[in-house]
Design goal:
- The complex is a heterodimer of chains A (about 110) and B (about 110).
- With about 110 residues, chain A is an all-beta fold.
- Chain A contains no helices and 11 strands.
- In chain A, strands 2, 4, 5, 6, 9, 10 and 11 form a 7-stranded mixed β-sheet that branches. A 4-stranded antiparallel β-sheet of chain A has the order 1-3-8-7, with no helix packed on it.
- Chain B is built from no helices and 11 strands.
- The chains are: A mainly beta (about 110), B mainly beta (about 110).
- The interface of A and B includes residues 48, 101, 102 and 107 of A.
Chain lengths: ~110, ~110
């Protein structure tokens, strides 16, 4: 049973480019969460999605960031016009549809903005 | 003030020691409490998960929650060098599907 998958594992972008991060949840999981981890800081919640719905985006920056979880395919976190401050590790977690509060994390995507 | 406070360490102990890791929190709505282990440049791995107050044991690991003091602990018995990692506490409110709030993590090193 494959765990949460994220790709790419490492992503380098120049300032002003777009970054697309992908997350495939564990089999049978329909809830997806995105978190960001800055150096020497804990994980910060960004957004919570179910299939075709954004449930909670209270942690998302108001501009340049967007997320989706389409009916088919992985969840996508999109960062437009990246700046150096976006450099961080971005983690995706998933949980089952009902009955469990546990969240299982992927290996993360490390974004470096030059 | 942060919602969840955790001493960043580093904490260095000899092999075989009992390790105590702690977090305090301010939000009384938190009901679910978790401990994650994160190795360098890897994703967090769920170690323990507790609902409300009480103790939970799994092998060498024991998690304790004291909601009256807003204080949670993770104990590691017979610590091993392979336990060297960053330990993150995390918590969430009611409703199983909602965001986790994390501590900053405690870096643990177990020496031979």
């Amino acid at each position: 049973n494959a765990g949460v998958m994220q790709n790419p594992r490492h992503l380098v972008r120049r300032r002003g480019q777009e970054a697309r991060l992908r997350c495939s949840p564990m089999k049978g999981h329909s809830h997806v969460y995105w978190y960001r981890q800055l150096p020497e800081e804990g994980l910060k919640f960004m957004v919570y999605l179910q299939k075709e719905n954004i449930i909670d985006e209270s942690g998302m920056p108001k501009e340049r960031f967007s997320a989706e979880f389409p009916k088919e395919g992985p969840s996508i976190l999109r960062i437009q016009q990246v700046v150096r401050g976006d450099s961080a590790a971005y983690f995706c977690a998933s949980s089952p549809p009902t009955g469990s509060a546990e969240q299982f994390f992927g290996p993360g995507t490390r974004l470096t903005v030059l | 003030q942060k919602e969840v406070e955790q001493d960043p360490g580093p904490l260095s102990v000899p092999e075989g020691a009992i390790v105590s890791l702690n977090c305090t929190y301010s939000n009384s709505a938190f009901q679910y409490f978790m401990w994650y282990r994160q190795y360098s440049r890897k994703g967090p791995e769920l170690l323990m998960y507790t609902y409300s107050s009480g103790n939970k044991e799994d092998g060498r690991f024991t998690a304790q929650v004291d909601k009256s003091s807003k204080y949670i602990s993770l104990f590691i018995r017979d610590s091993q060098p392979s336990d060297s990692a960053t330990y993150l506490c995390a918590m969430k409110g009611t409703g199983t599907a909602s965001k986790l709030t994390f501590g900053t993590g405690t870096r643990l090193q177990v020496t031979l």
